[in-house]
Design brief:
By secondary structure, this protein is α/β, with parallel strands linked by helices. The chain has 9 helices and 13 strands.
């Protein structure tokens, strides 16, 4: 069996596993479900082992199937990496880039910057998915995911884009009406805007005894940080948000930073995540390089 046919079969098998059904994978690959099922059966017959357990409801990998799909992904990634390295020096970035990004970064950084990227790369098309949920890049065929905080999947290629911090701030309108907090304890008399959950309603401050987390409260909580920003700018209360989110509002005077001498900003990294091998593809590399430049300018 030649290498090209073997890699094609591996790719088809991996797609079946990622999509969870022959029908969905067949649609992606332009095949019929029966043809794809026969292809997997041929692989199993050649290897002499069962890779999938088929039921009327779902497909499940056997132990041998788990090993085969893992090795297949490694081989396919190596092939893609080799092709990308050979063509990267001379190939103009072209093709489709599928991106996953959280709502805050999409609105504050990526959305305003994308027109410049598309204008500078007319042969690249972008498909942008905005969601704060964690995704499987391989299963959802995502080229680049932009995520903040601790990294989960160590098999992904991560490029650090920025080190962000958190800022406590409020609008001049709110401070004129309610007064400016001078020490952390003053926050107990203010309306504080938070994300849901106890971790987000305990803001950290330096004290003589170390770091103290002050339990704050307010009349508005949302799982969307952009809404917290909007409410803070509108004068509803005091918010603690990522610096890249509030940078423009601070520069324009729509928000004022507070308690900077005692507040613990709790830095966190923002990364661009890609599947191994794909990060060298010219279209993906061009986009990640652009991202790095944008995050540098946004700070």
């Amino acid at each position: 069996m030649n290498y090209s046919a073997a890699s094609s079969e591996m790719g088809a098998f991996v797609r079946v596993v990622e999509r969870g059904s022959f029908a969905a994978a067949a649609t992606d690959l332009g095949l019929t479900p029966s043809a794809l099922s026969k292809l997997v059966t041929r692989i199993e017959d050649r290897l002499g082992v069962r890779l999938l357990t088929r039921t009327t409801r779902r497909l499940a990998l056997t132990a041998e199937g788990e090993l085969f799909v893992a090795r297949s992904r490694e081989i396919l990634a190596s092939i893609e990496a080799a092709e990308a390295e050979v063509t990267a020096a001379s190939e103009r970035p072209r093709g489709h880039v599928k991106i996953s990004v959280g709502t805050a970064i999409a609105k504050q950084i990526l959305g305003p910057a994308l027109p410049a990227f598309l204008a500078g790369h007319p042969d690249i098309s972008v498909e942008l998915h905005v969601s704060d949920r964690q995704i499987d890049l391989v299963a959802e065929q995502v080229d680049v995911a932009i995520r903040s905080g601790a990294l989960g999947d160590s098999t992904l290629v991560a490029r650090k884009l920025a080190e962000a911090t958190r800022v406590i701030c409020a609008s001049p309108l709110y401070l004129e009406r309610r007064g400016t907090p001078r020490v952390p304890a003053d926050l107990l008399r203010h309306n504080c805007l938070t994300l849901p959950g106890p971790a987000w309603s305990r803001w950290p401050f330096h004290t003589h005894e170390g770091i103290n987390r002050l339990a704050i409260s307010g009349t508005f909580t949302s799982d969307n940080a952009d809404l917290l920003l909007d409410m803070a700018v509108a004068g509803l209360g005091i918010a603690r948000l990522a610096d890249f989110m509030v940078a423009r509002a601070l520069q324009q005077g729509a928000l004022v930073p507070l308690l900077g001498d005692s507040h613990v900003p709790e830095s966190f990294a923002i990364h661009a995540l890609t599947v191994p091998g794909r990060h060298r593809a010219p279209r993906v590399k061009a986009f990640v390089d652009f991202l790095a430049a944008q995050f540098g300018e946004a700070r």
